[in-house]
Structure prediction request, 719 residues.
Amino acid sequence: MILTFVQRHAKLVILLWAVVFVLSAVGAWHLNDAVKAGGFNDQHGQSFAGQDVNREAFGDADNELSVVLTSDETVGSSTLDAVETAIHELPHVEHVTDGRQVAQLESDSGQTQIVQVGFDADNTTTQNMVPTLRDKVAEAVDGTAIDSHVTGAAALDYDLNIQSQQDALHAEMIAFPLLILVLLFIYRAVGPTLVTLITAGICLAGTQGAGTVLAQFMDVSNMYVTGASLIGLAVSVDYCLFLIARYKENIHAGVDKPEALRLATHTAGHAIRFGGLSVIAALCALFIARNMVFSSIALAGIIVTTIALLALSTLVPAIITALGDRLFFGKLPGFHDALVIEEEKDSPMLRTALTKPAIVALAVVVPLLVCAAPLAGIKLQVPVASASILPEGKDSREGIEAIQSELDARALFPTSVTFEGAPGESAEDVQAKATAFADQLGGVSNVDQVLVPGTPEEKFSPYPLSGSQQSVNYSRVLVTSTGLPDSDDAHEMIRDIKDLTGDQDDVYVSGATAQGDDFDRLVESSIPWIIAAVVLISLALLGWAFRSWRLPVLAVALNGMVVSAAMGLLSFIWKAVTGDSINSVTPIVIFAIVFGLSMDYMVLMASRMKEEFVKTARHRHAIALGIAKTSRLVIFAAIIMIGVFLSFMVAEISIVREIGLGLAMAVAMDALIVRPLLLPSILTLIGPSVWGGTSTTTTELGGGEADDPRRPEPTPVAV
Prediction:
């Protein structure tokens, strides 16, 4: 019905999509200003609640920035006064503290000074003041030999936001020329290449425009931009390729163009729709984590996939109808059609998979399990108090590195253990709780310094240790680890402290390391639920699509192997090359995206096999022909995806590089090893029962398996 309308009103459909593109482009222009950086925290965690308590009870600033001044000479009081005068010109400044008030803010040589600036503003407002603050401080030290940096959580978020925008732009500048070359090689013509690129451009613009609108009503992370590019380019290009290839195949078979388009949308289009639903379903599971970063990536992927499905159902058929014979204009001379399957050629690889399925299956599964082995010892950790996620040369990173090299950075990122008194409980009694807790820290590993209220050491504290709010008294202990805030030692200390405090409602453990630990725990607790949700939804969708339970189980098993192998290999490579563990965000994002995209390949190939099985009732013949008709497309699509994902390796943000490399490896394993080798071998071992209800059609169609001695075994065709 939809296709009939599109074919009759092709120009109108194209015009409506043009309007959508223009409106989306206007919104997309403002996306970078609408999204937020950061979000690597658990907003429902104890550390987040503790921050709020500390603001109310102790007067801690809503947000703090650190101005770092370094010189080969002593940074004198006159310079500090000039800098602080400039700082006070900014709005929302609540307090300014330097080494003259807190000794930890000044290096022993006096050549490095930290000016702590507290703001009574939210993170977004503070972020927006970062460039102005940098300019003000730079002007104040102009003409001196002093270098200045502005760092802190909001500054790191600001630099992260700017860098992510640049990374996405750089990746797209590489991806699009690469796409043009690959598509020209595949199509051997300019026309379908332009159709595919136009569709991809509309999908990206639509997603970015929608992101700007969403950001007005909810928090949207800058990872939304990256997610839109990563997923959008992959699915939009692949879906176009599948549809146009099937349309072209029908034309070569002698079918007239309207009917060829109808058949393409009925067959390949059906597979695309279910594949798209699988991608959307897998991404929906990311909402389980209840975190801005995960939800933003999920939203980007869901929106761009939905737009791609709508475009493949309306826009692309409309363009094909409107162009008619001109669709394949600009044919490249001297090249044969890459989409034409030469069925007379034999494929030794496929023949081996069909004739020796057990051996082939074992030869593929064992290496995949070896690649997955590093997952057993994987450690997930998000950097919260370091700038390692940013490239060298970024101002906030240079500020952190200056602090770490010249000062005791650990003292600037203490862990706060806050005790809330009961209504009417005296300040002395609450303080006694804090003191008793401090006495227990002797049995906690990796504790370096403890500041306790009511002791002589309290004067060294950069923050007040006692306070009250609405007649409720509070006391806190500041604990410093033997390691830097993002080190293993610091994280081990945090977990030991939380074991001591238990799940008491009146005790809050907060600080940079605690925030990171809460986020890591959020990821760890979310992974089983996300995996379960993705698996169950995928089983339901594929069961509905194929009317079989064996095929969905096989699809989930193969996808699980691919994801596990890719993640294991990624963690091994990343640790070997960088020495760092992969970011906590990476595994979940890769799992959701790869699981969804792998379903695309599975649905496309299995649908074609089932189509052939319904026609012939010959199991091995259906596998061979289905592989022959789709594997080349899958390989082409994989090349496109790998190119898109690897283009993000130019990103300066480490987590984006992790995701790009992990996705590229997963797609390569899936399309080049699992689908052409493992899939046909496993299907051969299972037998025709894998097709579920379609097995009843064998009698009607003349019955008999490929092994029937009265029916010759077909020769496997080219892959």
In short: The longest helix spans residues 153-187. Strands lie at 63-70, 93-97, 112-119, 147-151, 415-420, 447-451, 466-469, 472-481, 507-510. The domain at 58-151 is CATH 3.30.70.100 (Alpha-Beta Plaits).
